[in-house]
Specification:
2 copies of one chain form a homodimer.
Chain A: H1 10-17, H2 21-29, H3 36-49, H4 55-62, E1 67-71, H5 78-93, E2 97-100, H6 108-117, E3 123-126, H7 136-141, E4 148-150, E5 161-165, H8 167-180, E6 186-190, H9 200-211, E7 221-223, H10 228-240, E8 247-250, H11 253-265, E9 275-277, E10 294-296, H12 299-315, E11 325-328, E12 331-333
Parallel strand pairs in A: 1-2, 1-3, 3-4, 4-5, 5-11, 6-7, 6-8, 8-9
Antiparallel strand pairs in A: 10-12
The first copy, chain A, binds a DNA duplex (16 and 16 nucleotides) through helix 2 and helix 4.
DNA sequence: ATGAAAGCGCTAACAA
DNA sequence: TTGTTAGCGCTTTCAT
C-alpha cells in the first residue's frame, strides 16, 4: 500500500482526499461543478501521492489518444527538424504527445491508418511527400475520418487540409530576381515530384519566364533528386551543353551547393561565370562560399500552424467540415551567389 | 453492427470466428496452445473484419505501452535526424512506437519521468545532452526504474546504460593527423559541455598533444557553442592572437565551417594559411570548399544499437542488472581542409 | 484446447 | 455538489 514502487492511481488520490474517484476526475479535468474546499483537498492529495494520470486508461475510456502522428521525409532532412520542433512544442503545450511514424510494408495508407485505428494517434501531420499516393486521400475520406494536415512542397490534394508555403510564387520571385539581374538564359534543377502535377517550384520557374516573355529551353531543365550529389550531376549536365545558361534556379539549397561545387571542380566559378539561386535557406547557406541567394521559408511557423490547426480540428471536429488551406509567405534572401550578368 | 464506421474489436473477431475473445487473443499473441483449425478460423476472421488491436486497451491491461520516448537536441540538428531515423526503423520493426519528448517546465527529470509514470512510454532514448543534470540519474535509479539509454558526446553517468562513439579517441586521432602533417601550434574550438567533466573531444585534443609531447597553450582553446556563428567568432578570436595556430581542431563541422568562413572573410585561406579539422561529417562537409577533413561517426549504427539495446532491456529486464556501455568506432576522413604545414 | 469472468484505471450517465 | 455504477477492449487466471 505504501510501496513506493507502486504508481498511484486515481483511487489512491480519492482515498487520500476522502472523496470519490469521480470527483478527482472532475477536478483534474475541470469538468462539472466541484466545491472550492474539495477541489483544494484533491489538489493536496495529488501533491501528496505524486499522482499522474494514466494515459492508457484515459485513452481507452475516451477513445482519444491525445497523440499526434507525424510522417517525415526519410533521410536526415535538416529542413524538417525545425518544422517538427515547432510542431512538438505546440503539441506538448496543448497536452498532446508526438509520435513519429516508421515505415512498415509498402502501403502507406494502411500503416498510417493503423496508428489511428489502433487508438495510438488521433490525427496525422503529413510532411513526407513521398507518401503522396493516389490512395492517400482515402485516409481522409475513409469512413473513420482520420484528420490529416498535409504540409509539403507539392500541390496537396484539395480534399486534405493543408498548411504550405507559397512555393510557386516564391520560386517565381527567385527567377524574376535573376531576370532583373539581366539573365535571359536561365536553367532550372528540379527535384523529384511524387504527385501527378508538376512540382510547384518548376511551375514557378515557368511562370516567371512566361511573365518576362522569355522562352523556356527544355534542355535547361535538369531533373534531379534534392541531393548535393544530384546538384553535381546537374553541373556536369549543364557544362555538356554548348550554350550553358548564365543562371540557374535550383529547387533546393543542397542541389544549389552541389551545382556550385560541381562547377568549381571544372573551373566555372559562381557567381563570376554563373549565378545560382537555391531554395530553403538551410543553415549552411549563409556560410557557404559564395553565400547562397535563396528562398527562406517560415519553417517554425509551418510546424506551429500545422500543429495548431490539427489540434483545433481534433478538439472541435464539427467546426471544420470543409478542408482548410493555409498558405504561408516565403522570403527571397539575396546573397553572393547571384550577380548581375556580365559583372564577373 | 455492420456500420463501417465502427472500429472492430476483438469481440467482433471472436463472434465472426465463432470462438471466444480469449482464443482470439491467444492466436494474436502466439501464447497458449490453439488448434490449427481454430487458428486459421481466427486469422480469416481478422482478415474479414479488418481488425487492428486496440493499443490503449492492451497498454492498460499489460502495463506496457510498447512505446519508446526520445529526447533530442533542440535546434534542427541534422546530425541526429539520421540517428533517430535508424532508431525509429528498429522500433517500428519490433512493434514499438516512437514518441518525441517536448519540453514542459524546467525540470527535465520530472517531465521525462511523467511519460513513463503515465504509461505513455516504457523507456527513454536520451540523445539530448543539454538534459544531463545531476538529477538525471535519479530517473534510472528511481524506484520505478524507467530504463534509459544515454547516447551523447559527453561522458555519460556510469549508472546509465550508454551507447556512444569513441569521441575521445577519435578526437585524438584527428589531432594526431594534424601533428603528422607537421603542425605544432594547434588550436581547439570546444563545444558547450553540460556535464561536470570536460568535453570528451577536448580531452582527446589534450591526449594527442600530450602524446606528442607538445605543450598546450590555453589561449589556443576557444570555448564556443557548436554553431557556425560560433565558429566565425572563433576565427576572430584566433586572428586577434599575435601567434595564430597553424591548425585548428573544431569540435564539430558547423564550427569548422564557421571558422573557415570567418578566416576567409579576413583573407586567411584554408588550408593555405591554416588547416582545419571538424567532427561529425555532416552532409555539406564533403561539398564545402574546401572539403572538410573530419571525423565520421557511425550515426546509423548509433541509433540502431541504442534502440535495440533499449528494447532488449524492456523485453528482458532481468538479464540486464548491470548498466551496459557500448562504444562504437568513428573514422577519420581526410579531405582538403587539412594540409601539410608550409605546403600553402 | 477453449470459454467464462475478472479487472487494468479511467470518465460519464445517472442518482442522490 | 458528490457518489455509485457501468464499461471502454484487452489479457489472463481459473475452470472445464
Amino acid at each position: 500500500m505504501d510501496d513506493p514502487r507502486k504508481i498511484p492511481t486515481i483511487q489512491d488520490v480519492a482515498r487520500q482526499a476522502k472523496v470519490s474517484a469521480a470527483t478527482v476526475s472532475r477536478v483534474l479535468s475541470n469538468s462539472g461543478r466541484v466545491s472550492e474546499i474539495t477541489r483544494s483537498r484533491v489538489h493536496a492529495a495529488v501533491q501528496a501521492t505524486g499522482y499522474t494520470i494514466n494515459q492508457a486508461a484515459r485513452t481507452l475510456r475516451m477513445q482519444r489518444a491525445k497523440t499526434i502522428l507525424t510522417a517525415v521525409p526519410g533521410i536526415g532532412n535538416p529542413f524538417y527538424s525545425t518544422v517538427i520542433q515547432a510542431a512538438i512544442s505546440v503539441a506538448t503545450s496543448r497536452g498532446y504527445g508526438m509520435l513519429v511514424a516508421g515505415r512498415l510494408g509498402d502501403d502507406p495508407t494502411r500503416w498510417l491508418m493503423e496508428y489511428y485505428v489502433s487508438n495510438r494517434a488521433d490525427g496525422l501531420l503529413l510532411f513526407d511527400d513521398t507518401l503522396v499516393t493516389h490512395t492517400l486521400h482515402e485516409i481522409a475520406t475513409d469512413d473513420r475520418h482520420m484528420p490529416i494536415i498535409a504540409s509539403y512542397d507539392q500541390r496537396p490534394d484539395p480534399r486534405l487540409n493543408s498548411v504550405i508555403t507559397d512555393n510557386r510564387e516564391a520560386s517565381a520571385r527567385a527567377v524574376q530576381h535573376l531576370i532583373e539581374y539581366g539573365h535571359r538564359r536561365i536553367g532550372h534543377v528540379a527535384g523529384t515530384s511524387n504527385s501527378p502535377f508538376p512540382h510547384e517550384r518548376l511551375s514557378g520557374y515557368r511562370d516567371a519566364m512566361a511573365a518576362a516573355q522569355l522562352p523556356v529551353d527544355e534542355r535547361f531543365i535538369y531533373q534531379s533528386d534534392y541531393t548535393m550529389e544530384g546538384g553535381r550531376s546537374g553541373a556536369e549536365y549543364f557544362m555538356s551543353l554548348k550554350d550553358m545558361p548564365t543562371a540557374i534556379f535550383a529547387a533546393n539549397d543542397e542541389m544549389a551547393i552541389g551545382l556550385i561545387a560541381g562547377f568549381r571542380a571544372r573551373g566555372i566559378e559562381c557567381p563570376r561565370d554563373v549565378s545560382i539561386v537555391g531554395f530553403d535557406d538551410i543553415s549552411v547557406s549563409e556560410n557557404y562560399h559564395p553565400s547562397l541567394t535563396t528562398v527562406r521559408q517560415p519553417r517554425e511557423a509551418l510546424g506551429r500552424v500545422a500543429a495548431e490547426l490539427l489540434i483545433n480540428i481534433l478538439e472541435d471536429q464539427a467546426e471544420f467540415s470543409e478542408p482548410v488551406h493555409e498558405v504561408l509567405p516565403s522570403e527571397l534572401v539575396v546573397r553572393e551567389s547571384s550577380a548581375r550578368i556580365g559583372s564577373g
